Amino acid sequence: MAAVAQKGAVIVGLSVTTPSSDRRATVSLFSRLRKPEGQTDPFSIYAELRSQGGVSPAPWGGLLVTRFSTCDRVLRSGDWLEPDKEWRQRQGERTRWSAPSSREISSTLPALNPPEHTRVRRAAGTFDRGTIERMGRRVGGIVERLLDSLMDHLHTGEADFAALVSEELPIATIGDWLGLPAADWPRLRELTHDQVFTQELLPSASQLARSDAAMAELRTYFLELVRDRRTRLGDDPVSDWIRRWDALEPDQDKADEGVYFLALFVLLAALETTSTLLSTMTLLLVEDPTRWNMIAEHPDLVPAFVEESLRYDPPTHVISRVAARDCLLDGVEVGADQMVHLMVGAAHRDPERHPHPDLFDPRRKPGHLAFSGGIHYCLGAPLARLEAHTLLHQLTTRLPRLTLVRRPGWAPRVAFRRLLNLDVALA
Ligand code: HEM
Fold it and tell me: How far is Cα of residue 408 from the mean position of the Cα atoms in its chain?
């Protein structure tokens, strides 16, 4: 899930030149984005970016895309690729792309291009209706338990919904599904928060070092898990992946490595993103009592409320691709291998796609790119939706109305949103 910047790259073949004043303005926009105020409201900064045009040069190289239709087209087109292992090697040894965590992530599903991507995606399987139904019962039970604990806290005062519910539900769901011991969950969650920097837009050297360390620990953990599971194959996804990889790959070490990359990426993909969706959705619910009442009175609006939350403030604000060959993007020349950053968080507020885009309106015509598009469309979307629907439904049917105690804080990121707290109380 690369959302990454081509630091130090030279823009070759762009028919637009950036006046240094525009370049300075864009640098300043991005430094504002990474500050707490920028994280609280990135959308007004995106509006300034959009005013420079739907496709504008990024100061560090590559392009920034804020128009919804262009982002959508790039995601669905075979002319745009993931920055894969070979692309990363071409960027040179002294770039962020040669960091061990970047190399490691380059072997996971969302960093592969066809034909390798097609092969591995097939081996990954899908969350079909039967699986989601089975998981639905487990998720219902987990949500019930988490809301009981939330209520216990609320009876004695305020409670941090992010820590008690949003951070817990995804790890309990995926940990249970993959058969990971519950004692390991807190550490795994911590490691996923650390590894994310290698996928961020402009990571610092110290952030990359944290990603490298986290990824090394995750590698040891998951390789051990795969080898252990091989000795007692059962009816679980890791065992299924072992069987599928064994059919594809005669070399057992290579097969184990294939399973490891799948298990690793499913964990990385499933935790922060879903936690952020759960917190964002709950923030939108509790900050305006009319929204809580709307869902309590019309539970059939639960799915639409979740989709509008995904449009309004998606967990992933940037998705990146590189040009397969020289081409034109909305009239702008792009050279082969150049990177484009699809500013999905901005594109969701594109007035050409959504009238009155800053209005939160679950009744609007749906349409978002929160789960990407084309061949890399998120494999876990049905599971993320299941968790969000179950939580929203139980919240508004079981609990009395909650209210926001104070505005939450966000981690200083650009691509991957993360609410640090969500303090609520009984209304
Ligand atoms: C709200 C929660 C989630 C969001 C916003 C989200 C977002 C995304 C996005 C944007 C991509 C594509 C990246 C790209 O195009 O480069 C993606 C891919 C993926 N996601 Fe999710 N995701 C979520 C939850 C999950 C969950 C729960 C799982 C697994 C259980 C999961 C597994 C995957 C996998 C395996 C891919 C790679 C697909 C491919 O490259 O073919 N995601 N996700």
Answer: 19
Q: Is the CB of 139 under 6 A from ligand 1?
A: no
Rounded-to-integer distance, Cα 91 and Cα 137, Å = 47
Q: How far is the CA of 262 from the centre of ligand 1 (A)?
A: 12
Query: Domain spanning 20-426: which CATH class is it, in words?
Result: mainly alpha
- Specify the residue with its C-alpha closest to ligand 1, atom 36: 378
The CA 269 to ligand 1 mean position distance, Å, reads 5
What is the rounded CA–CA span in Å between residue 171 and residue 149? 16
**pLDDT one-digit tens code per residue, 76-94:** 999 999 999 999 999 998 8
Query: Which of ligand 1's atoms lies nearest the C-alpha of 320?
Result: 16
d(CA 315, CA 411): 12
Distance CA 78, CA 402 (A): 46
> What atom of ligand 1 comes closest to residue 109's alpha carbon?
40
Question: What is the rounded distance in angstroms from the CA atom of residue 112 to the CA atom of residue 114?
Answer: 7
Question: Residue 386 pairs with which residues in a beta bridge?
Answer: none
* 392-407 tens-digit pLDDT: 999 999 999 999 999 9
Nearest CA among 46, 47, 121, 111 for reference residue 85: 111
Q: What is the mean pLDDT of residues 173-184?
A: 97
State how far the Cα of 393 lies from the Cα of 347, in Å rounded to an integer. 29
Distance CA 73, CA 327 (A): 13
> In 3D, which of 91, 31, 34 has the Cα closest to residue 322?
91
Integer Cα distance of 250 and 14 in angstroms = 46
**DSSP string covering 98-110, please?**
GSHHHHHHTTSGG
Q: For residue 182, what is the DSSP state? A: G
Residue 426 sits at φ, ψ, to 5 deg, of -70, 140
Can you give the residue ranges of every domain in the chain? 20-426
Residue 51 token pair: 């005013």
Nearest atom, ligand 1, residue 174 CA: 30
Q: In a 3-state reduction of DSSP, which class is residue 61?
A: coil
State in Å: Cα 154 to ligand 1 middle: 33
Reduced to 3 states (helix: H, G, I; strand: E, B; else coil), residue 333 is: strand
| 379 close to ligand 1 (CB < 6 Angstrom) | yes
Decide: helix, strand or coil at residue 397. helix
Kindly report, residue by residue over 221-235, the tens digit of the pLDDT: 999 999 999 999 999
* Six-digit token string for 29: 């926009």
- CB 259: neighbour CB atoms within 10 A? 28
